[in-house]
Amino acid sequence: MKHYNLVIVGSGAAGLSAAVYAGRYKLSPLVIEGEFGGETSTAGVIENYPGIPAIEGYELMKTMRKQAEGIGAHFLEGWVQEVQQDGTCFVIKTKKDEVRASSVIFATGAKRRHLNLPNEKELTGKGVHYCWTCDGPLYGGKTVAMVGGGDSSVKGVNFLAEYASSIYLIVRGEEVSAEPVNYERMQKLGDKVKVILETEVKEIVGEKKLEKIVLSREYNGSLELSPDALFVEIGFEPDQTFVQQLGLESDPKGYVKTDSRMATNIPGIFVAGDMTNHFGGFKQDVTASALGSVAATSAYEYIKSNPGICVSHD
Amino acid sequence: MPNVTIYTTPTCVYCRSAKEFFEANNVEFQEKNVAEDEEAREEMVRKSEQMGVPVIDIDGTVVVGFDKEKVAELLGLSA
């Protein structure tokens, strides 16, 4: 079984940043990537990553990956299914491969939250969508709705406005919570965007495709809206797979608990990115990248100060 | 060579990943931009019975989304 100083699980902003730093520490890390680029790759244009005025999320991730590869990081495609402790080593298994590592950084991010309504799954791709950068352009000249009151929803509305003729933004809370730059951009769209506050989607109705949605309270005298598409952008939940498998300590919301250096309760295991609540609800590419760099530095220090651990059996 | 058609939108990253996979494996493909080509959009909906991209048609077998493992299998490649 091949041995690595460090295995990084996940190849979004946190994982790739960790790989860049670990590469520079000469750890020759292995990055196991289930889906390249993580959430960033579908986030559309990123305009707040310092040093780069504007870049497609996918391009930013490709650049970061290239940088990591150039500094000695290795990449393996596959979804990690199991991680086990074996003495001072960790054994990481994908469907096809198995590797051993002295330390692991989990940067598996978070899973997209769904509305969990009847019909949602059945109508996914049939009017109910999650990736607005992918499927938004299919609704040129149509009426669409976006659910969610955060920055990503507003970015989504601004993106959809290039195609759709009319957009409803349905927000559960009392106000929209977005970066002022994005919010102002949305305001400039004028009547094209109708913001519906303090309202939830209660039902998704349709047989072969989305026909209508039912709201929790009336809008313009009706509980029903009939958009051609409903885009769901209501945040993410931390991935729990390895928390449960390894017994990582987590908070009530499922975020992995760490010290200020991204170390978990298990020596040799570190986490970075959206699996943690290090900066509270503020989850950005720049924060994920920062956490990745800290986790890599901690892994490096851990390996350096424990030279006897997990000696290679190759 | 298999007959490969991919239905895409210009901003869909999974479409880009799929096209990069085809290019890396020297697989010839025809791309149809369903954001602009209404006829192609109708064709995609008819084949896949849904409106999400990418849709990949390999010799008549339709794959919704970029399921690399499945696509590789249909093309006789390793993923």
Protein architecture, described:
- Chain A has helices at residues 13-24, 57-70, 132-135, 151-160, 180-187, 241-246, 285-305, and strands spanning 2-9, 30-33, 45-46, 55-56, 74-77, 80-86, 89-94, 98-106, 110-112, 128-129, 143-147, 166-170, 193-196, 201-206, 210-219, 222-225, 229-232, 236-238, 269-271.
- Chain A is of the alpha/beta class and 314 residues long.
- In chain A, helix 1 (13-24) packs parallel to helix 2 (57-70), helix 1 runs parallel beside helix 7 (285-305) and helix 4 (151-160) runs parallel beside helix 5.
- Chain B has one domain: Glutaredoxin (3-Layer(aba) Sandwich).
- With 79 residues, chain B is of the alpha+beta class.
- In chain B, strand 3 and strand 4 (61-64) form a beta hairpin.
- The model of chain B has no long low-confidence stretch (mean pLDDT 95).
- Chains A and B meet through helix 3 of A and helix 1 of B.
Main attributes of the structure:
heterodimer; A: 314 residues; alpha/beta; FAD/NAD(P)-binding domain; seven-stranded mixed β-sheet; five-stranded parallel β-sheet; 7 helices; 19 strands; elongated; B: 79 residues; alpha+beta; Glutaredoxin; four-stranded mixed β-sheet; 3 helices; 4 strands; globular
Question: Radius of gyration of chain B, Cα only, in angstroms?
Answer: 11 Å
What's the average pLDDT of chain B?
95
- Total individual domains of chain A: 2
Oligomer: heterodimer
C-alpha termini separation of chain A: 7 Å
Apparent shape of chain A: elongated
Topology of helices and strands:
The complex is a heterodimer of chains A (about 325) and B (about 80).
Chain A: E1 2-9, H1 13-24, E2 30-33, E3 45-46, E4 55-56, H2 57-70, E5 74-77, E6 80-86, E7 89-94, E8 98-106, E9 110-112, E10 128-129, H3 132-135, E11 143-147, H4 151-160, E12 166-170, H5 180-187, E13 193-196, E14 201-206, E15 210-219, E16 222-225, E17 229-232, E18 236-238, H6 241-246, E19 269-271, H7 285-305
Parallel strand pairs in A: 1-2, 1-8, 2-5, 8-19, 10-17, 11-12, 11-17, 12-13
Antiparallel strand pairs in A: 3-4, 6-7, 7-8, 9-18, 14-15, 15-16
Chain B: E1 4-8, H1 13-24, E2 30-33, H2 38-48, E3 55-58, E4 61-64, H3 68-75
Parallel strand pairs in B: 1-2
Antiparallel strand pairs in B: 1-3, 3-4
